[in-house]
Amino acid sequence: MTIDISRRSFVKTLALGAGAVAGTGLFPSASRAAGELVAATYPGAFEESHRKILLPAARRATGGEIVLTPVLGSEQVAKTAAASSHPPYDVLLLDEGPMLEAIPRGLFAPFPVEKAPHDAELGAPFRSRGFGPTVTVQLIGIAYNPKKITTPPTSWLDLWKPEYKGRVGIPHMESSLGTTFMVEVAKLKGGSEKNLAPAFAALEDLLPNVGAVAPNPGAVGTLFQQGQIDIAPFYFNNTKLIAAKDVDVAFVRPESGLVLVRTSMHVAKNTEMLDRAIAYVDAALAADVQEKLQAAPYYLVPTNAKTPFSAEIAEVVGGGADALLKNAIPDWATINASRGDWLKEFATVVRS
Length: 352
What we know:
Elements (H helix, E strand, L loop, with lengths): L1 H16 L19 E5 L3 H18 L3 E5 L2 H10 L8 E5 H7 L31 E11 L23 E4 L4 H13 L8 H10 L3 E5 L2 H9 L5 E5 H8 L6 E3 L6 E9 L6 H12 L1 H7 L17 H7 L3 H4 L7 H20 L1
Parallel strand pairs: 1-2, 5-6
Antiparallel strand pairs: 3-9, 4-7, 4-8, 4-9
């Protein structure tokens, strides 16, 4: 087991070298210039697509300069809570888990839909309900190297196959990706979103197969690029992005279905740029912007009902918006109640 421990430690250095933890607090952030709107995004595919497609549209909509800051959701919440009177971000981008942690802390300004006309164009499950709207839905399935694994996997439990010894990557539970993977394993093993004990028992059995534990989703892509792993839970859009960079990787929907992570944008309470922040979010909802964001190589699932799914997204989803919502949507309120304890247990298991 020593080699696995060594490899799991190594991936943290690997991820740092690849820039996967931009915005994790390891580097000091630049002071905000007067008049700048600061918008958070996620490192990796989100940052790349937002810089190329969203920023030009948002600058036109807001009429000013915008600084895009790559930072994970849990850190956005922590930093905003620590400086809520002068928030470090005017706009936050959050998955449901960190979003539900932020709401009781009072970190969001109410979202005035009358100032965001594109909100009404969204599918009903994605519109603002007082706070920010859902700007995309991330699809979680299994990524694998088709040159090394010639028969595509069909189940999360395929990661336990003995032929994958030392070749499996798993994301840390700090991320939505890692948490949803553990929840899906728990369900397949008789557990639930309230009971991850079967998943932790299975994780111990998986350790001989684990080549690396990725500290964040961006590091999963780096591991594929470096040839350190051949199979892992991963996001569809991230898989497609690294595949476009000539990485040998493909994506498959497990037979139990995809896992959906709804990603929303929120205006920070006490921002000094309220109207511009609202305009930024509304720009992300526009049909033409979402049409570009769902195109190759980014594949961000649109939530604007005026933007039909591309052929590639429809294929992996199995249809349109109705088919999308038939996949698993985690109960983050239930998960968050125990997530702190589960993070400690996860860290203990992967170090064993």
